[in-house]
């Protein structure tokens, strides 16, 4: 684990110096699967796109990337206002930044959004409902996200996986609702009360 | 420390224990450690249950949840005690006396049997055992499945059945880089299995698997699909009324089974030496032996028709049968919970601990979560929700006073004394971490995420620091 800490500190410098696609396997963003460009899409695109991606990383603050993270947005143009609505209906407003990942942002603010597979599109525990008006502004889900969403209980038209939502300026005001009712197979037919 | 308006001093902190160190146990603990002390008891020296022993080796991202569980285990209010057999080393009654509450999360270690003649012939295995074998479950170490035949039949069409088919047919290059056990890798390298039928008693619209696993089969290199188009009659018309998950799954199945292959697929299929396919409307009625009488040579399948539609459709026997030759039969029709202790209510028909919202009605202070609560279906996310619900029930009872935590309880101190009397030495989490480090370092040598220890004896020896520490850098 010491190696990844060293990588984290040198990552910024390495990315700036690199002229070619870096070895993603050492990057904590890739390892934790919070890199917005999964390895499959990086392979699909040409190297020039990847270079643009690298530059985008330098401007983004992903919650776990400790060095570049600041908890208050200094540049107001970068602020994205987000409201989480938790399972009890409580509204939690959050001032986020362009490039923030919805799942890790929730964790940073103590919101109870699970991410069992750590943003690797292998579960549906970060399932959220996206507010009208913002849902259509999100890029289309990858097939893999749709596959995982299919397993989420209480699937709705405006369902997405939180780990795949990266904030952009046009998402300002987005509201993300955590699904309330848990789906349980009660063998005796009992239906749980919504809470 | 405040619990919803109540103040607990650290000496009267409610003490709760969880029986079973798998996803249910850890997710339940995760929600309780905010307010109570949680001790997790696990029979094996190693934690994580089916995440370690059930999830397929080529699904490493699904295992990321281990990081969440590790965080829980290392929380100041959580303690892990491995190598403790509840029901044998300590009884549930003793736990109920030592703790304010006990949550049973011990899952489903048994197996639903087919109930047909010939089920116990050589060459017939339960999927639970087969999966346990390639995942290093100590009790399955000696399975030594015979992979020298040409055709394998998997009975059942859920995700476990697809995992088994996929592991049987995956290119070795893929498997070599996973945490599949070395003996399994060697057996699969020598395997002569070239055809796998995945057999279900109902039709394409009733398969229990999910789309991710189906996609993996459809795109598995070196293989091509082979199905019966007639099985899909009427399916296209029914598509539009299906809910999204079932619709997408059925569309993919139809595409795989019926559509002529595109150029890319044609190329892949022309070089494919291995075949797989779903066989629908078939139930096993007998496993037929070879001339020696000891080993499977074929399975007699009854042909069914469907009555009703959708999830509730029933398979009804038509009276017709067919005999399908095969040398390997893997029955993947469900896991099954077993009773742990005579003092615990158990419903043998549904094979669960009877409960309401996770509360075991007949026994105050007793709860359950995970598969032992709801039956053995669902992925990790389902178990997560299930466990959170039980934790919520327990916290409600604590708040309302239904669960009386005013009296201090001895918790692990009492249990440790009982175990010592019996000569049982628990494995604590830092001991597991020694095993973990050794497995990872042994894996590095051969390019795998870990090389699992395969016996309880070896695990205990490493935990006690008797062997293995020289391997660590």
Automatic annotation (TrEMBL), chain A:
Keyword vocabulary terms for this entry = 2Fe-2S, Electron transport, Iron, Iron-sulfur, Metal-binding, Mitochondrion, Transport
Please tell me whether the keyword Metal-binding is annotated for this protein: yes
GO biological process annotation, one example: P450-containing electron transport chain
Cite the GO molecular-function annotations of the record: 2 iron, 2 sulfur cluster binding; electron transfer activity; metal ion binding
Query: Pfam families recorded for this chain?
Result: Fer2 (PF00111)
Which residues are in the 2Fe-2S ferredoxin-type domain?
Answer: 81-182
Its Gene Ontology cellular component terms are: mitochondrial matrix
In the UniProt record, does the keyword Cytoplasm occur? Answer: no
Q: Which CDD domains does the record cross-reference, listed alphabetically?
A: fer2
Which cofactor(s) are needed, names only? [2Fe-2S] cluster
Instruction: Sum up the protein's function in the record's words.
Output: Electron donor, of the core iron-sulfur cluster (ISC) assembly complex, that acts to reduce the persulfide into sulfide during [2Fe-2S] clusters assembly on the scaffolding protein ISCU. The core iron-sulfur cluster (ISC) assembly complex is involved in the de novo synthesis of a [2Fe-2S] cluster, the first step of the mitochondrial iron-sulfur protein biogenesis. This process is initiated by the cysteine desulfurase complex (NFS1:LYRM4:NDUFAB1) that produces persulfide which is delivered on the scaffold protein ISCU in a FXN-dependent manner.
Similarity comment text for this entry: Belongs to the adrenodoxin/putidaredoxin family.
Protein name, as recorded: Ferredoxin-2, mitochondrial
Originating organism = Oryzias melastigma (Marine medaka)
- Organism taxonomic ancestry: Eukaryota, Metazoa, Chordata, Craniata, Vertebrata
From TrEMBL, chain B:
Extract one GO BP annotation from the record. cholesterol metabolic process
Question: What cofactor(s) does the depicted protein rely on?
Answer: FAD
Record keyword Amino-acid biosynthesis present = no
Q: Where in the cell is it found?
A: Mitochondrion
Q: Which pathway does it serve? A: Steroid metabolism; cholesterol metabolism
Q: Please tell me where NADP(+) binds in this chain.
A: 157-160, 201-202, 213, 378
Query: Example GO molecular function term?
Result: oxidoreductase activity
Question: Which residues does the annotation say bind FAD?
Answer: 24, 42, 50, 86, 371, 378-380
May I have one GO cellular component term?
A: mitochondrion
Superkingdom is: Eukaryota
* Enzyme Commission designation: 1.18.1.6
Q: Which reaction does it catalyse?
A: 2 reduced [adrenodoxin] + NADP(+) + H(+) = 2 oxidized [adrenodoxin] + NADPH
The FAD/NAD(P)-binding domain is annotated at: 15-168
Q: Which UniProt keywords apply?
A: Electron transport, FAD, Flavoprotein, Mitochondrion, NADP, Oxidoreductase, Transit peptide, Transport
Q: Which family does it belong to?
A: Belongs to the ferredoxin--NADP reductase type 1 family.
Protein name in UniProt: NADPH:adrenodoxin oxidoreductase, mitochondrial
- Which organism does this sequence originate in? Oryzias melastigma
